[in-house]
Protein 1
Amino acid sequence: MSALGTSISIILTKVRARRVARTIARTTPTTTPIAVYFADAPQSLYQLRRWYRVLEALNVEYPTAIITSDPSTFAAVRRDTTVAVTFASGAPELARVLESHQVRVVLYPNHNALNFRVLRFAVPVHVFIGHGESGKESSVSRQLKAYDLDFVADAAAIDQLRGIRGYDADASAVVIGSPWLGFVGSPPLSWQPDGRKVVLYAPTWEGDRASMDYSSVESHGEQIVAAVLGSPDLRLIYRPHPWLGRVRAASSEADARLRRALATANRGDVVDTGDYGWALTAADVCVTDVSSVVHDIQALGKPLLLATGFESRDADRIRAAIEQAASAGASSPVTANVSMEGILAGIATALRLGAAPTL
């Protein structure tokens, strides 16, 4: 896009934002003591969508709203969920929304720098919830110090957070389990079990810096897909990260080759870009890299193979490893708390914290 085109796009976005803000200002606000703040554009909505069903269930116990700061995101989220959605971009609008909705707890599904627009307000309790439990560098970010609490899946996550210098993980981290795994979504209509062992290959994206590049799609992707396609007893679900190829053309090209390979093979394999979770339950074994998929597949007690752990990139050897894992099953299944009990208790903790005097 040219500089002129970019300028016009920015201007149009600001105009739409003002129109939405004026519309919202004319509506009668409801009391929603719990709010989720999501400042990103629609391209990042995968981070919020993981929480939709959980938030809808939470809304039954505690009236909940989603605060957006992008007009296109506002429109998309209103289509996606039954949870109340509102809009506020600048500090005056945010102050009005927080006060009129009587927000007592704000939840954050990512570390967007715009979160600080809301973090400046002293009355609500600010809680980081993230969008999956992983061993990525971003999951142990020093940014967690900005929040009052951090909701995590298990005790292992707290152990990981203890590595953050100057951060009191034992005081700030609250274990809530993995409630999103209780709402795993539905498979596409084309998906019908057929007796073959199901392999889920879920590579992450290449990251926005070298230290965050955990993706295996360039290094192992074609060999993994060839290994599965080469077996009449295996079936593949390929679920690339929504941002795969966003930074590096080589990752985008590798992803395109994998999709073409599945289409050409025409064996009933699936490229999954829909609701997160159904593939986890359908899979007999998962191949992935460093991502939240690792935690989720282990929490469900499914066999896991890390792409970077293959001793060889030879497709035949990879196939043998996958077949062995699929037939053996999980030797040490990890039971996850996938109910709403943990997050409801976490919200109760946050509300009690908010009852204390604020600075």
Protein 2
Amino acid sequence: MWEQLLQCSASGHVAFCIPWPIFLGGPTLAIYWYGILAATGIFLGALYAAKHVDWEGENPDIIWDAFFWVLLAALVGARLWYVLQAVIGGTGEYSFARPLDIINTRQGGMNIFGGAFFGAIAIIIYARAKRLDGWLLTDAGLMGLLIGQGIGRIGNFINAELYGPPTGSSWFGMFVPEGQRIGLYRDLAMYPLDTRFHPTMFYEAAWLFLTFGVLFFIFRRNQEQIVHGRLTGAYLIAAGVGRFVIEFFRLDQPKMPGSIFSYSQLASVLYLVVGVIVLLDRMGHFRIPWIARPQNARQRQQAYQSILENRRKRELSLLRSKERERRRKQRELIAKEKAAAKAQGTPLEEAENADRPVAEKS
């Protein structure tokens, strides 16, 4: 068994392996770095979303209550979008005759556009069902997505995927193993193993973290002016612009017939357009007919002051609760000391005097 575990763990993509029953495909199950990083990104993104909701005066538990449904919808949407894009691109890798291949995320990958789209739909449905502010949830969720997606891109580097064309440099770029090469770059005579390729996953990660940093700074610096939904619009614009540019460096994305643009770039443009519409609506410059009007500047400031006041009340209530608990424990300790003194035959008056502060005795 140990030999099988060592052999399973030999790949650089694998973090570790565990024994696995034969009837489930054993004898070992590989746990990949990509999966670990993706799970870490998802958790940290959700952690931020919960904190974001808390800053806006809502119970952070609503994020964890919605977490499973939103995550499930996002994973399904990301996978279906990836498969659909591959099918449109002309690949024969997927077929309804092999349905397990469609849901097997280890065969191929997922696409963030589908994940964000399906996840947003899940958030809207959940918010309506629970009568919550859907714009606040999408703001928090998409800000968290920037963190999670950025961390997940490190897994793409470990897998040597989503890279760009050769850099033409002897020092800048990433090495890509022969087994991970695609298209004409499999020709080792023209592109030897020491060829360096553009690490586009790091370009995108840098853009995602930069976008998060800028939006987070703006949000925390001007929170009393940030109407719910503005961060959603800003995310869509930034994500659309960033992905549109980075797609020119991606080698794995199918192009639209007779065009230099990929299907993901088309989705990026749609992101950008929707983001502009949402941002204009949330700023009061445009009206989306079927969506309730956003708060004006005065209403937002009043709402924010209410958030601060409620936070102060909760903090004061917490301090009072801690003080009551401290006094209760002090009374219990005094009672125990008196009981112990009585059991030892010490006069009650001496025990009470021993419990008094020194200043009081004097």
